[in-house]
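W.,

You were right to be curious about this one. When I first looked at the sequence I had no strong expectations either way, so I just let the prediction run and decided to look at it fresh. Below is the sequence, 535 residues in total, followed by the output.
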Amino acid sequence: MAIAAMGCAAASGSVLSADDSFSEKKLTIDGYLRGEFSWNAKNWQDTPNYNDRGKMSMARATVRVNADWKATDSLALIAKVRASEEYQTSFLKHLEKNGANNYHSGARGDLMDLYNDAEIRELYLDWKASDRVKFRFGKQQVVWGETDFFAANDMVHGFNYTWRSFLEPANEELRKPLIILKANVDVPEANGAVEFFVRPGWDRKKDIGTELEIYGGRWSSQPYAYVDFRNIDPYDFDNKQGDQSKVTGGIRWNGTADAFNYSLSYLKTFTQNPIMNASSNLKMFDAFGIPGAPPGGWITVPSGAKTLGRADTKGLAGDVIYPLIDVYGFTAAGYAPWADAVFSTEWAYIKDAPYQILALTPTMISQAVAPGFDGIKKKDVVAMMFRMDKNLSFVQSAFGAEKPMFFSVQLFDKWVQNYKSSDRLINSVGWGAKTKEHSLLLTGIFGLSYNSGRVIPELVVGADLTYKGGFAVPSVTFELAKNVKWKVEYDYFWSNNWRNGQKCQFPNAASCDNAGLFGYFHNRDQIYTSLTYLF
């Protein structure tokens, strides 16, 4: 019903733009209608006695409508809405039957509640107060940074990876918009501008932090199909270290100098990665060496780590929280004639970034469930990105393309300050890879064009240089008509280390694997296609 209603809205919007009461200069409407389908290319390791290979994992219809109404020369109202509905495939029924998205609903929940959605993505007012000063107020996206991949400074918002894991190329679809007051002040005397914003804390709780698929559904990480972790560690958006109602914000200077652009910024925001805050319920394990804590107190656990905030957490094992952090950022980008390429870099100094730890002698719950329940340590982190974008002329004739190949390479690093291996940091709760001082990731994009841009082959690749593994996503986009695009892609992952759910059980669940990022995607390869009509 949501899709039909928004489709009618799109049609009526086209009529309104031609109505006498709204000139085309004052009201513009655009958007898309899209169908998306995906199939599992491999049999999942963590769904025993079920063959996932070839099963359709997604059949989704989406409509998005963007409306821009210019009320006066200095005032405009912008609205962006999106609705999606899905067909529940046999694969999704199987996941649901075995426990996916069953929090507080017994042995079987309604998985489609997770994937069917209709929301106002953005709704804000633009006001040009003067030639120098502009304001924007309402639900919006604030994008800082120089990369579309593993961002360093693009941390104003969390991301919703229940939409399509990290495979979605359009970050705009994944970001969680927030209610923000933003101002831009041009300073032409200094060849730049100041941008600052305040988030008053009026958002919904679920709009905070990056949302991973911890519900056991189609985007769940291996080996946690069927598992809805909220049954033992639900979200807590009121934790005093990450209270969603707290005011956050930031300030950034954008400037130009000679042949390059640069920015300097400060940001108070919520950490994007979810953190597991251990529960005072763990005092039941006192006999196994886990200290208890008084109600409302802090739990001190092995290696000097501690929980962040209340000890009387909601879940049996703890809560998922998003602690507040401070981020100091720098970006620069410019064209280098000597290389005929655009170079860019992005740096972020993240103060007190929280990490889970794995104690030398893991706690009982870590041994029974997974690593990461032993406490939290904070570390300052420097996140860096270096990128080069270049057109490769010599490839054009080799592949018979109509123009040079577009090539982009990016190197990412997370550098933990005051690093000590004895801290025993881990990258994420649930997997055993120990955090190294430097975490290096290399990605590349190769793009060609044929038939006057109507056929666009592309290859996106990435390699984890520290924890091993990687991904390759070859795709082809066809322009079937002026407003119709069809995309076909294959999402391939490989990993040297992955978590074996059959072997990682009590009493060895804490220390049985070294799975890093691409171990999370073990056997999660898929075939994906989409058909989009732009209006």
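Here's what jumped out at me. The longest helix spans residues 2-16. And, maybe more interesting for your project: The domain at 2-534 is CATH 2.40.160.10 (Porin).

Coffee later to discuss?

I.
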